[in-house]
Specification:
- The protein is α+β, with helices and mostly antiparallel strands and 113 residues long.
- The radius of gyration is 22 Å and the shape is elongated.
- A hairpin with a 3-residue loop joins strand 3 and strand 4.
- The chain is 34% helix and 28% strand.
- The protein has 3 helices and 4 strands.
- It has a 4-stranded antiparallel β-sheet with strand order 1-4-3-2, with helices on one face.
- The chain has a domain of 79 residues.
- The longest helix is centred in the last third of the chain and has 24 residues.
Length: 113
């Protein structure tokens, strides 16, 4: 369990701390250097600052919020979230139709045997 956030940080705009926005998740894997550089650049902003950006053709979301580690304890950090590529309804509809057609073809082939 993390220690209590100091009052000096709690008074900041941190209501969304640690919550990923809809369609985004914490960045998975190694964060590319130019995304890391952008996050470091944003540390000059106030707690609660949020920014959407596209870097390397990848949609990312940044939020300046408290971070904790055993060396620096509570400190200002910038969390990076990556966009989740969720298929659109049109794509899901096409996948459904494709599955039904494949089932019909397989059933008619089976009946002919």
């Amino acid at each position: 369990m993390l220690p209590v956030i100091p009052d000096s940080i709690q008074s900041q705009n941190i209501s969304q701390m640690g919550m990923s926005p809809d369609g985004y998740r914490l960045y998975q894997g190694n964060v590319p250097l130019n995304i890391t550089n952008k996050a470091v650049e944003l540390l000059s902003k106030d707690y609660g600052y949020e920014e959407y950006d596209t870097i390397n053709n990848e949609k990312v979301f940044f939020r300046v919020e408290p971070h904790y580690d055993t060396v620096r304890r509570w400190h200002k950090g910038c969390t990076v979230y990556q966009h989740i590529n969720v298929p659109s309804i049109f794509t899901l509809k096409n996948m459904f139709i494709h599955a039904i057609l494949n089932s019909i073809i397989w059933i008619s082939f089976y009946i002919k045997k």
